[in-house]
Amino acid sequence: MNGPQVRVRTPHDLRRERRRRPRSCWDHLVAAPLWPLHGANLGTLLRTCDAVGACLAVPRLPWVPEALERGNTLRHPACVHWTGNPIRWLQRQRDRGSAVVGVELAEESVRLADLPAARRRTVMVLGHEQTGIPGEALDLLDLAVEIPMVGTGSSLNVAVAGSLVLYRLAGLG
């Protein structure tokens, strides 16, 4: 049986085909796990941010810098910004014209498959692993995104959920 031959692209091919990076890390897309619970999730999100040309915004918690350093397996510095108070930071982002999209199970949530690519600077907010996005932050969202599931769990972990939504917002998935 003669079928199509699969040609694996080389690292050189991949680098040549990639989209150019944004001029500034704050130009387009920011992942904001503002209430992190597990350091491993931050490292995974950092890799996804690099893959889609986004930045990571995190609060100044004592364990976060070490988690990011341990999780950054890239050969270059990652694009990380510190938020301070998450609610005030989100409000400033809205005041500056950013769209604020939360990954949350809410009655008015848009299904992931229906989420369009970001057309302007967008901050994707991720909540706490167990309690989600706090109520005062929900009031700052322009849009909530739901990831439909058929299994027995009610949600994915922060790193997986954030990665899926980042790919959609970046127009890559």
UniProtKB/TrEMBL annotation:
GO BP: methylation; RNA processing
Organism per entry: Cellulomonas oligotrophica
Enzyme class: transferase
Protein name listed in UniProt: RNA methyltransferase
UniProt xrefs under InterPro entries: Alpha/beta_knot_MTases (IPR029028), rRNA_Methyltransferase (IPR051259), SpoU_MeTrfase (IPR001537), tRNA_m1G_MTases_N (IPR029026)
A GO molecular-function descriptor: RNA binding
SUPFAM superfamilies named among the record's database cross-references: alpha/beta knot
Keywords: Methyltransferase, Transferase
Domain of life: Bacteria
UniProt domain tRNA/rRNA methyltransferase SpoU type: residue ranges: 40-167
EC number of the protein: 2.1.1.34
